[in-house]
Amino acid sequence: MSGIKKVVLAYSGGLDTSVIAKWLMETYQCEVVTFTADLGQGEELEPARAKAQAMGIKQIYIEDLREEFVRDFVFPMFRANALYEGEYLLGTSIARPLIAKRLVEIANETGADAISHGATGKGNDQVRFELGAYALKPGIRVIAPWREWDLNSRDKLMAYCEAHNIPVEKKRGQKSPYSMDANLLHISYEGDLLENPGAEPEEDMWLWSVSPENAPDKATYIELTYEKGDIVAIDGQAMSPATVLAYLNKVGGANGIGRADLVENRYVGMKSRGCYETPGGTIMLKAHRAIESLTLDRELAHLKDELMPRYASLVYNGYWFSPERKALQTLIDYSQQYCNGKVRLKLYKGGVAVVGRESADSLFDMKIATFEDDAGAYNQADAGGFIKLNALRLRIAAGKGRKI
Fold it and tell me: Residue 99 sits in which domain range?
């Protein structure tokens, strides 16, 4: 890492990244540029500017990326109905490629030699940040302090702050014991008692949703309008992508929707227990599958379902900018050209129920599907030959005495 004169740091303004900023200056004798992204985490970001200025940092980037995040990352992922290991809606995973993209762009703008992040050597985020950066700028150098330094405890970090006059925010009240990450798609919780997979999460841990038991006794109905697989309006009101997700988070959380408690397989090899709140994403997944049920050809829908786990793993493992993810996205986006219409949903005590769907591009034909007289639209006698042809291999095997 010799010859590094300037580094762009993904900076939150918290304890870890504040220490990293000073550590980079001290260890590498370099200039530090900070980048703080507003992805809808719901925190005031301007204090990060003041902290960076207090450490003598001159170039400070604080950017509102909420619309780009939902439009160019969340919505494309939801066209795929992506779920990692059948449960995780990939809230943290999908934010990392955007941050990596801006780190590289800012490095190019400022003439920086390297980028840096605060991800630990045990987690997935180090992989996601760095795979994204290398895909966009092959020669970029990456500094990951958690893989280099010996400041491996909160006490050591606090001692470093005291020794180097780094201001540490003194929060009133009890500090959350959990490691949390939030953006417009979700909020995650790890650590403390959650490290025991057998321990039930404390109710006061959850920040975005009421418990299903305490949700309203009256159901909430909403109608989502789709164009090419993306939500463009709610209850007839046109909305931008970020506004859509923010609204669905609010209405979903108020109805106890979107909690998940799971043990997942990290890319680095270990199992990890985490809890997630994804109210808007939970609603979006249910509604998107409903509009696809009307508008997608059977085999195309089934092909998407077969490819979905592969797509989800690519997102989870940090391969957003890989050729295989882009190729899958092309197929997925092609499948959405007729994914237009409206879906009506009933939200009630943690559940999301589809109660209606309609589309001018629907492949549902009532004349054929009806249990009443179809006036010759479907010849039921044709099914006999269809069944015999499909049974042919089974009949041959049975005739040879093969055991099933």
Answer: 6-68+91-163
pLDDT value of position 169: 66
* Number of residues that this document lists for the chain: 404
Using a pLDDT cut of 90, give the percent of the chain over it. Answer: 82
| Beta strand 237-238 pairing with 230-234 | antiparallel
Q: For residue 169, give the 3-state DSSP assignment.
A: coil
- For residues 47-53, average pLDDT: 90
The separation between the first and the last C-alpha atoms of the chain, rounded to the nearest angstrom, is 63
Which helix (H) or strand (E) segment is 264 a member of? strand 259-265
Asked if residues 48 and 34 have their Cβ atoms less than 8 Å apart, the reply is yes
Q: Active-site positions?
A: 16, 96, 125, 179
Other Cβ atoms closer than 10 A to 274: 20
Q: Taking 90 as the threshold, does the pLDDT of residue 227 lie above it?
A: yes
Please give the average per-residue pLDDT across 98-103, as a whole number.
98
Work out the average pLDDT over 132-149: 96
- Indicate whether 246 and 288 sit together in one domain: yes
Strand partners, 185: none
Give the 3-state secondary structure of residue 182.
strand
* Total-model pTM: 0.94
Query: Is residue 218's pLDDT more than 90?
Result: yes
For residue 274 the two structure tokens come to 């985490």
The rounded distance, in Å, linking the Cα atoms of 53 and 47 is: 10
State the CATH number of the domain containing residue 347. Answer: 3.90.1260.10
Contact in structure between 315 and 90 (CB atoms under 8 Å) = yes
Residues 143 and 61 placed together within one structural domain of the fold:
yes
Q: How far apart are CA 259 and CA 390, in angstroms?
A: 43
